[in-house]
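> run fold SPOR domain-containing protein
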Amino acid sequence: MKKITLPVFLVLTILTSCAVRKTTEGERVITIEPTTKADTIKPVVVDTAIKVTPGPMVTQQPVRLKEGWRVQIFAFADKSKAELAYQDAKLRLNVPVYLEYIPGIDNVPYKIRVGNFQTREEAERYRDFLRENGYPDAFLVETQIELP
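> ok
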């Protein structure tokens, strides 16, 4: 059995601090007026039984890193633009896509890089493929890569 503490503090604070009054026209108006101290409200503990269905045990292998190559396709100063480009590249490309934040190098810290190439030749072939298919500014970056 697992105990769960519900975040009822906020709900109780709001409910106990609301006052309803009527206006001269008969409309109801709710105003919030503090009526309790926060330290007097205690969280409610609810006992719940959680049923777990046994299934296959899934373990995540630790990521192994090695020096290798990736192909950089974009760089952005704006995080939201970088995230859009990252999502688009994930949909379009058949290799792993990474959104990396590298501050201090230039004024565009968000880099979109693709692949985990162990040799420069593999990375060059993929860079050439990208340049022919809509990523004309793609270039190689020597970096840590993830091994399967």
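The chain has three helices and eight strands.
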